[in-house]
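Help needed: design a sequence for this.
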């Protein structure tokens, strides 16, 4: 499915051939994100991502940057997460060289002009304002703050209005020089490509990349004991309320769970699907279908190298939040007390495998799939290898991990809604 080579300078190149598509995706993934920031530079990873579209030596304006791929009907963008920052271009196969030149150009030669930095502060602050006005999205940031508090793992990826207003060009340059280096970068090409030709062109485009060692991220801290978080621990349930006048309450209710390297990571994924990962899942049927409490309800699992959780998100009528919380907790309790059926296990496994197969139809998905694994885990599992792990999951595995994670003291609840008193919600957190 893929080929990986590591150059002498430490740059990793991954190629993923796909003859069935007329497209090719060029993705550059850098191993740095909001978990690598300090209190003074909150949001700097995201800020830098924005600035890479503001002009290079070859294309000295944002308009010229955009027109290169717009003229070709290409799809291009960038993204920032806690763990990495990515830049990609997807084009018709004949335009591969243009896409590679475009991505390498913004990676190496972005000008970061002072004038654009000042303008982009305002753009990012408006982006922060936008998310604050979108509680369905903002609840995700609130959830991480609830779990990890005032440390990089608990900070908003975009930063705060205060920090974004104060980040200097010098800080941005220092951060870029520190993190955008060979050993911290992956170039992934996926689609209808000639492998030898693609690898040679990547080597030529990235021959000048810096060989210095990047700064590592600080460990996630267990605030209760002020030490590095080795295993997700919690001694009592917690609630975080963001009071806001809304027509419905958006909530995140879940538990700390496993990181990427935990042996039951994939079983956790299956547990999440059973609870709220499909329209026939337990929570969807109960909360939406039977009780009519929500339009959207979903359960998601997130596993990072050093953190992990399972969380259910829902938008609830302000007058019936208590009922929804109790109903979700009831399903958590049931699945931790009684074995699921063989049919339910089989359905959830096939759901996982089917969704992954459909997701990997496109070249950009294949690039993200391979590069993301390599960056976070230093290895790449093929879909077949993942499916084998899924097939081995048993009914007893699901019961075991449900009993491990679903305990009263491990519950966490974040809410965005028109309330002032979080204690009434705190009292509901019992299993």
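Sure. Designed sequence:
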């Amino acid at each position: 499915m893929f080929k990986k080579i590591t150059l002498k300078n430490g740059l990793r190149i991954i190629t993923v051939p796909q003859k069935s598509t007329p497209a090719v995706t060029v993705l550059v993934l850098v191993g740095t994100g909001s978990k690598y920031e300090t209190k003074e530079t909150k949001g700097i990873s995201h800020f830098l991502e924005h600035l890479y579209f503001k002009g290079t030596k070859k294309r000295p304006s944002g308009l010229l940057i955009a027109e290169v791929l717009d003229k070709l009907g290409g799809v291009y963008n960038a993204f920032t997460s806690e763990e990495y920052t990515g830049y990609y271009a997807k084009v018709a196969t004949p335009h591969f060289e243009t896409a590679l030149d475009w991505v390498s150009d913004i990676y190496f030669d972005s000008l970061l002009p002072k004038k654009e930095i000042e303008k982009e502060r305002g753009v990012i602050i408006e982006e922060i304002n936008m998310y604050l006005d979108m509680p369905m999205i903002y609840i995700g940031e609130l959830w991480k703050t609830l779990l990890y508090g005032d440390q990089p793992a608990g900070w908003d990826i975009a930063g705060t209005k205060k920090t974004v207003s104060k980040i200097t060009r010098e800080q941005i340059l220092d951060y870029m020089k520190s993190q955008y280096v060979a050993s911290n970068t992956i170039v992934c090409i996926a689609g209808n490509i000639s492998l030898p030709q693609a690898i040679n062109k990547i080597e030529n485009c990235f021959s000048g990349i810096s060989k210095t060692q990047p700064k590592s991220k600080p460990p996630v801290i267990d605030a209760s004991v002020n030490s590095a978080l080795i295993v997700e621990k919690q001694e009592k349930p917690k609630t975080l309320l963001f009071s806001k006048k809304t027509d419905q309450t958006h909530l995140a209710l879940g538990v700390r769970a496993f990181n990427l390297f935990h042996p039951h990571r994939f079983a956790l994924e299956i547990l999440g699907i059973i609870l709220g990962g499909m329209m026939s899942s337990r929570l969807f049927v109960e909360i939406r279908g039977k009780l009519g409490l929500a339009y959207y309800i979903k359960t998601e699992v997130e596993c990072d190298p050093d953190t992990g959780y399972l969380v259910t998100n829902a938008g609830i009528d302000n007058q019936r939040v208590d009922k929804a919380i109790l109903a979700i907790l009831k399903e958590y309790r049931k699945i931790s007390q009684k074995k699921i059926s063989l049919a339910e296990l089989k359905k959830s496994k096939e759901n996982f495998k089917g969704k992954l197969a459909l997701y990997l139809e496109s070249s950009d998905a294949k690039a993200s799939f391979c590069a993301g694994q390599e960056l976070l885990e230093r290895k790449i599992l093929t879909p077949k290898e993942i499916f084998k792990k899924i097939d081995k999951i048993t009914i007893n595995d699901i019961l075991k991990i449900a009993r491990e994670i679903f305990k009263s003291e491990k519950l966490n609840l974040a809410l965005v809604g028109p309330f002032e008193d979080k204690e009434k919600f705190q009292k509901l957190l019992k299993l």
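The first strand starts at residue 3 and ends at 6.
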